[in-house]
Write a structure and sequence with these properties.
The protein has about 300 residues and is an alpha/beta fold. It is about 35% helix and about 25% strand. It contains ten helices and 13 strands. Strands 5-4-1-8-9-10-11-12-13 form a nine-stranded mixed β-sheet, with helices on both faces. A four-stranded mixed β-sheet has the order 3-2-6-7. Helix 1 packs across helix 8 and helix 8 runs antiparallel to helix 9. It is globular, with a radius of gyration of 18 Å. The protein binds alpha-D-ribofuranose. Alpha-D-ribofuranose (RIB) binds next to strand 2, helix 1, strand 7 and helix 8.
Amino acid sequence: MITVFGSINMDLIATTARLPKPGETVAGNGFSTAAGGKGANQALAARRAGRIVHMAGAVGRDGFAEPALALLKDAGTELGTVKQVDEPTGTALILVGGDGENMIAVVPGANGTVTSADADAAIDAMSKGDILMLQLEVPTSAVERALARARAKGVTTVLNLAPLIDDAPRLGRLADIVIANETEFERLAGQEDMGGDDREAALKQLNAETGQTLIVTLGADGVIAIRDGVISRAKGLKIEPVDTVGAGDTFCGYFAASLDEGLDFDVSLRRAAVAGSLACLKQGAQPSIPSSAEVAKAL
Ligand code: RIB
């Protein structure tokens, strides 16, 4: 069983021929809304990968609450630990350029009301051997509490170090498995402008120091990871990205689901990388998350 403790957003998405520079206005050529939030996206990915998934988090009592949870609900995700509060449902304002790259501003709203007591309730419902997945879009005090309680209970903790916040290096030390992109990993390792050799050396050093499993996603170059001193690499698919929003979350959800299913570590990395690639082929975070059948076909 997987519990995802994290954010739930409504994404407001404008597409533009190219992304604006600071202070610049560009014409948009499309607008849509889609369910999002790193936590919810990861929960849906794990669910579409075929696992039992509980989502813990918060939404408002506004018009965005229902659509933000709709795809999770349709997929059969357990939503009993999603609370409703007076703050507005979290929103993300997203610009997607013609090359598939994006800019995102997140307004936490209800996500900011998630507390240590919510963490306790979520972990109390878990058992030894379950997987807890977290990100950094809910208050760090709650994330820290969830990590500590889960570890004490023998729950495997997977922390996606996104979005990058000041506390990331400290929190990153508290999980069994850390998933970071290149920039987030540089912050975790305390070193800037890493080349491939620097990254591998830093992975080996951190793994030797902490015993943690570390995974660094490299966009089109796939992923590099270390577990028990052994380096692994996996590639996704060669694709022309339409929209990369949610691709990292899809990777995280599929990776957690594959571990939960008992798949081999390297097989889990490759499956997650392929799922992440497929998520770049459609617009919107949650609408683009592939089913397990689609991933199996692409593998
Ligand atoms: O990782 C993508 C997600 O980041 C979006 O769905 C948006 O809601 C932000 O949380």
